[in-house]
Design a protein that fits this description.
- The protein is mainly α.
- The protein has a domain of 65 residues: GHMP kinase, C-terminal domain (Alpha-Beta Plaits), CATH 3.30.70.
- It is built from 4 helices and 2 strands.
- The chain has a two-stranded antiparallel sheet with strand order 1-2.
- Strand 1 and strand 2 form a beta hairpin.
Length: 103
């Protein structure tokens, strides 16, 4: 829980990766996971490998996990690629959103 000195949390402004992880949701995940057990398998594997959260992306073409430690993420990608036989990559997220430009 948040302490009194943490300040207000405005909806839409997460205060770090744990807050982002707590907000993750995809309405299609239960439906797609029921029809395609490999989706559920990938999410369980990500969480089992140390992801604080795992989610199906979009309509299920990819799954991703949020890791706080880069070394853990890289190790998980290597292990899961071997165990699942699927391409797995550890990537770094953007530290800020780039400014949108309309040229």
């Amino acid at each position: 829980m948040r302490g009194p000195s943490a300040g207000p949390v405005l909806w839409g402004q997460p205060r770090g990766w744990p807050d982002v992880a707590a907000r993750l949701h995809n309405d299609f995940q239960a439906v797609v996971g029921g029809a395609h057990p490999e989706v559920t398998r990938s999410l369980e594997a990500l969480e089992g490998a140390g992801a604080m959260a795992a989610l199906m992306s979009g309509s299920g073409s990819t799954s991703f996990g949020i890791f706080l430690d880069r070394n853990v993420a890289e190790r998980a990608a290597r292990i899961l690629a071997g165990e699942l036989g699927w391409p797995c990559r550890a990537v770094r997220t953007l530290s800020a959103f780039p400014e949108a430009r309309l040229d």
